[in-house]
Structure formats: structure tokens, C-alpha cells
Amino acid sequence: MWGKKLLVTLAIATAASVGAAKTLPVEDAILTSPPNVPPAIERDHNARVVVHLETVEKVGTMADGVEYVYWSFGGTVPGSFIRVKEGDEIEFHLSNHPSSKMPHNIDLHAVTGPGGGAVSSFTAPGHTSTFAFKALNPGLYVYHCATAPVGMHIANGMYGLILVEPKEGLPKVDREYYVMQGDFYTKGKYGEAGLQPFDMEKAIDEDADYVVFNGSVGSLTGDNALTAKVGETVRLYVGNGGPNLVSSFHVIGEIFDTVYIEGGDAKNHNIQTTLVPAGGSAIVDFEVQVPGNLILVDHSIFRAFNKGALGMINVTGEEDKVVYSGKLSDAIYQPEGSAVQTMEGDYKVAKAENKEDKVKFGKRVYDANCKACHQANGEGVPQAFPPLAESDYFNEDPVRGIEAIVHGLEGPIKVNGESFNSVMPAMKLDDDEIANVLTYILNSWGNKGGEVTVEDVQKVRQQKGH
Ligand SMILES: [Cu+2]
Predict the structure, then answer these.
(1) Going from the N-terminus, what domains does the chain have, and what CATH number goes with each?
(2) H-helix or E-strand containing 284?
(3) 269 among annotated binding-site residues
(4) Which of 5, 157, 165, 416 is deepest in the core (most CB within 10 A)?
(5) At 196, phi and psi to the nearest 5?
(6) Nearest Cα to Cα of residue 143 among 211, 94, 200, 89
(7) Entry pTM
């Protein structure tokens, strides 16, 4: 009699598969690709959550004209977002696609156990491994491949996030997004076209060519920008796969109302920039109050403007001139009287008298505001910043230059036969500075000559009601 009962119990345990302590309702996990996040968990009990995740090696786009063989969880970088509840039991099935050249495994930082599941999940191409774990601690956790050479598997894109919601859930917000930073190391330097192989030397030197959100340059800009409406609350689940670099995560034009520090329980408020370690995370919540483009960056700022770590949230809705006025006026500031205008070396002269002055003053504006991107002689940077030297786009209609400075410029354009699809932020320059800098450009580097006037600039400002 006892023997028979034992046998039955064993059979049930096997049917409910390995590791189940008691019988929980079974459900399939909803997995999402970045920047999407699975819906909040509504159930008030625990479940046995079945996760099916596949490792895939495939060619993807790192930047315009640049391809890379990504290794991924679920076919995207970062990998599929997994969402469970504190106390859930997770039955994990890791499949390695038959076309893979490498074995892979998974180390989930949410696992309490050896290697975070790495050894139990080691999977050859064309195989599936299964293991189970209990989500003991709530938090936002990184997962990654931990197959040797570990650094190489992570550098190729094998990381993602798993959220273990606390028992009581997280406060409701209007929108949730999944953003994960990673650094990449390629044989060619940033923007060099073609299929770029992984560069182990650079990876060891921590000399990244690309630092990006969600696996590629432009994954969160232009048509891929995140969206929100004025008055909504936004939550970003931010991860950092590394392999090497720590992220100083910042959103230009926004303040984080709440940061769940390092993805844990501790909440900090009114934060400008939060540190996201390699192999770590943060949850940031904020309300958007005014329309415009919020820019996500790693505030190690060369990474944002020269290596790709730049994303966007396009906020639409009503202006609130009390929260943010826009430019109200622009008066000449002369703390030391008009003497400033004739200071030795004529550093600051209020007005250009003629074209020669404009060109001279325009060069200073250029060096201080444009050179960093468009380069010293207007030659630009392939794939990233279009040339201003002999630019057919600009010479055809210099008003485009005014528009680019006043309103910013984004989306696909063609300059001298080369396509660009990037973001130039609007620049806070006054009408004289804009007239001067564009006149300087028109009269430099083989451009067609001519002059841009303050009136031209004012016309553009008025067109869009500025
Ligand atoms: Cu791997």
C-alpha cells in the first residue's frame, strides 16, 4: 500500500517535471523583444512559469552599412525580456539553434545556485537543456551567456533582463520600456563599412568601437524612438550587458522621479544620472510634463555622440510654458559696458559689419559648436555626421542649415550620394551667430560662397512660430 502510493507520487513529480516542490498552476512565460516589456503580472498567487528561450547566431546591422554576427537570446540584442513574480518557480528550457557554431548556456543573476544556471544549461547546437529554479529575491536581474570565452559571448550580444516582481507588484505606470546598453569591439573603427568581425584585442583593452542601447546605433532614434504623451508616467527597465563599460545613464531634459537603485528595493528620488554597472541594472520612473524629444545617453558623453549610446523618447502633447518656457528673449549682455566690444583680440564683437566679419566670427561659432561632429574642415565622419564641405545638400539651399540649427535635424537625408539617418540636436545660438556660422561655412572648404543674413534666420524662426 505505502509502496504503491510512493510510486504514484513519483510519477506526478516527473510529470510536473523536475524541481517542483508542490504543485503550482503552470503557465507559459510571455517573452518580449526590446524595447517592449511583458505586461505586469496580475495574479496574486505563485505559478510554475515555463520559459522557452533559444540561442541564435545571426548577422545583424550595427550601424548604417556596418554588419555584425550577433549571438543572441531569442534573436535580439538584448535578449527576450522575462517577467515573473517573487516566489514563482521557473522551468527553463534553453534551446541552441542547430545552425549555431558555438555551444551556449545561461547565467541568470536571479538564480540562487551554482553559476546562476550556467552548468545545468550548457547546450550544444541542436540541443535543448532544462533546469528549474525558484525566484527567491525580487529585483531586475541581468542574464547572460557564460560559455568560455565568456567575455566573447557577452561581447557578441548574449545578455538580457529578467524582472522578478515583488510579491506586492510594482506601482502602476502608463508605459514601460526595455533599454539595455552594451559595448562592442570590431576590427574596423566606428562606422567602417562591411561585415565587421569581433576584435578580441580591443575587447581586452576595453577599447570599445561601439557603445549602444539595444544592440545597434539608432535602435532607439528616428522611427525607432520610444514614445510618450504629456502627463504620462514612464518606466525604463535599464540594463547593462557590458562586457566592460559602466553606464552613466541619463535622460537629457528629464529628472528621474524614482530610481530603484541597481534594480533592487532601495528607492532614490530626484536623480539626474544613475550608474548602471556592467552586469547590473536600474529601474527609473519619471513623469513627462512637456512635449519634445528626450535623449537617452550614457553621460560618458563621447560614447553618446561618437559611439552610438543615444536614444530618444518622443513626447507629444500640450506645451506647459510654466514648466518650460522656451527662449523668451535674447538681449545683448554687456556686464562691462560697450568696452567689451573692442576688447583686445576682438574676442566678442556684438555685430558683424560686413561679410569678412561674419566669416571671421562664424569660424569661432563653428569651432565651439559644430566642429565636434562635423570636424575641423567640414569633412564630417562617414556613417555618422554628414560633410559640410562641398555638401550638395547644404549648397543647394542654405536655408536647410538654418533649419538644422534652429529646429534640429533627424531622419534620413542624402549628402553627396551618402545616406545619413541620425540626429542633430537643435542648437541654442542667436540669430547673429547662426548667420555668421553659415556664412563662414558657405565661404569655406570649396562651398559656393554667398551670405546668410539675420533676416533669413528670423524668417525660419517665424515659420514654425518660434
Ligand atoms: Cu554563448
Answers:
(1) 26-169 (2.60.40.420), 179-316 (2.60.40.420), 355-463 (1.10.760.10)
(2) strand 280-287
(3) no
(4) 157
(5) -100, 120
(6) 94
(7) 0.66
For residue 103, how far is its CA from the centre of ligand 1 (angstroms)?
A: 6
Q: What is the mean pLDDT of residues 87-95?
A: 98
Task: Say which amino acid occupies 130.
Answer: T
Give 412's strand partners.
421
- CA dist 43 and 32 (Å) reads 19
Task: Calculate how far, in angstroms, residue 115's C-alpha sits from the geometric centre of ligand 1.
Answer: 14
Distance 146 CA to ligand 1 centre (A): 6
Cβ(12)–Cβ(43) below 8 Å: no
CA of 184 to the centre of ligand 1 (A): 15
How far away, in angstroms, is 58 Cα from ligand 1 center?
Answer: 13
How far, in Å, from the CA of 104 to the mean position of ligand 1? 4
Confidence of residue 334 (pLDDT cuts 50, 70, 90): low
* Cell numbers at 167, concatenated: 510579491
Q: What percent of the chain has pLDDT over 70?
A: 90
Indicate the DSSP class of residue 350: S
pLDDT tens sequence across 410-443: 889 999 999 998 888 788 789 999 999 999 999 9
Cβ-contact 33, 80 below 8 angstroms: yes
User: CB-based contacts of 417: which residues, under 8 Å, 6+ apart?
Assistant: none
- 299 carries a ligand binding annotation: yes
pLDDT in tens, 364-385: 889 878 887 888 899 988 777 8
285's grid cell: 520612473
Q: What is the mean pLDDT of residues 29-33?
A: 98
